[in-house]
Amino acid sequence: MRVVAAMSGGVDSAVAAARLLDAGHDVVGVHLALSTSAATLRESARGCCTLEDAADARRVADRLGIPFYVWDLADDFRRDVVDDFVAEYAAGRTPNPCLRCNERIKFAALADKTLALGFDGVATGHYARIVDPGDPDNTTGRRELHRAADAAKDQSYVLGVMDERQLAAAFFPLGDTTKPEIRREAAERGFAVAKKPDSYDICFISDGDTRGWLAGRLGERPGEIVDTSGEIVGEHRGAYGYTVGQRKGLALRRPAADGRPRYVVDTDVTTNRVVVGPEEMLGIDVIVGENARWCGPAPEGLVPVGAQVRAHGRELPATAEATPDGEVVVRLAHRERGVAAGQSVVLYDGTRVVGSATITRTARD
């Protein structure tokens, strides 16, 4: 097969490209330029897509002897990921930009260009598994997305936005391997990136200061922090900078009467108020989502699933039902705390990813 290997400049995508080549595929390396003003060097392990990363990817491609190109998707990334991120926070929601990038860039804009050029698909260094029809683990007779063998590195959550068409043209060569094994393999292959730190957090906010980054784009909007009785207990510089479940950085004027810690239990960008309350107010067991994306046919009726609401969160036993008006209602067997609108809930059947939805509201049953 002719495959485009998306090469970020990190160790995972380097080994993924090498494994494709070993398997006999015709491989072309592609680095995505996602910033209109990419930094020359990384300042830390946060972020990615610097000129240094592009150079690291090129060196790996040269060592493998495969063609290498840089594709400019900066405008797509700004519009579909960065602008969406700002708009979601401005509306009082908490988005996950990694899911948006996979949904709209890597397995949409990149995949569409790849297929249009006559390639068979796109490979990335994500830790997840594709199970083909006929494999013993396959339950549907279609290509399935499954959790990675390495639970600590499993990235199936951020891939839960992929639909059946995108899965058909996706390759994840690292799904059966642990991260230490990948680093050893990279070193054995002579890749200089074998010990390169992983990138993490939000790639376009390299210093990790999300609230400060948002303030630079949305401006400061001073307002009140109130408790559940409406009493003013503090001030903030923009309700958009807070999310449900947050405890740190509140700078409240005084502790609660019972001395217990308080958490953000609601944000209202309309009134520009942040509401804080005790920990028990964070527990919810009903999640309603929209914009459902299924990795195969949508489930019919009420079905048992595992539900995950954070990239590295626990899987919760639950039931899910797709409603006629396009919503997905998930009922958790146990209460989960700190679930905010804008996050994604990803549904599982064993290790298989069933689909995902963007959370619009939560409740207690």
UniProtKB/TrEMBL annotation:
NCBIfam families: PRK00143.1, trmU. Residues 153-155 are annotated as: Interaction with tRNA. Residues 213-277 form the tRNA-specific 2-thiouridylase MnmA-like central domain. The keyword Transferase applies. InterPro entries: MnmA-like (IPR004506), MnmA-like_C (IPR046885), MnmA-like_central (IPR046884), MnmA-like_central_sf (IPR023382), Rossmann-like_a/b/a_fold (IPR014729). Catalyzes the 2-thiolation of uridine at the wobble position (U34) of tRNA, leading to the formation of s(2)U34. HAMAP family: tRNA_thiouridyl_MnmA. Keywords: ATP-binding, Cytoplasm, Disulfide bond, Nucleotide-binding, RNA-binding, Transferase, tRNA processing, tRNA-binding. Its main location: cytoplasm. It catalyses: S-sulfanyl-L-cysteinyl-[protein] + uridine(34) in tRNA + AH2 + ATP = 2-thiouridine(34) in tRNA + L-cysteinyl-[protein] + A + AMP + diphosphate + H(+). Belongs to the MnmA/TRMU family. It is an enzyme of class 2 (transferase). Residues 287-359 form the tRNA-specific 2-thiouridylase MnmA-like C-terminal domain. GO terms for cellular component: cytoplasm. The gene is mnmA. It holds the Pfam family tRNA_Me_trans. The record marks H126, Q343 as: Interaction with tRNA. PANTHER family: MITOCHONDRIAL TRNA-SPECIFIC 2-THIOURIDYLASE 1, TRNA 5-METHYLAMINOMETHYL-2-THIOURIDYLATE -METHYLTRANSFERASE. CDD domains: MnmA_TRMU-like (cd01998). This is tRNA-specific 2-thiouridylase MnmA. It is found in: Cytoplasm. GO terms for biological process: tRNA wobble position uridine thiolation.
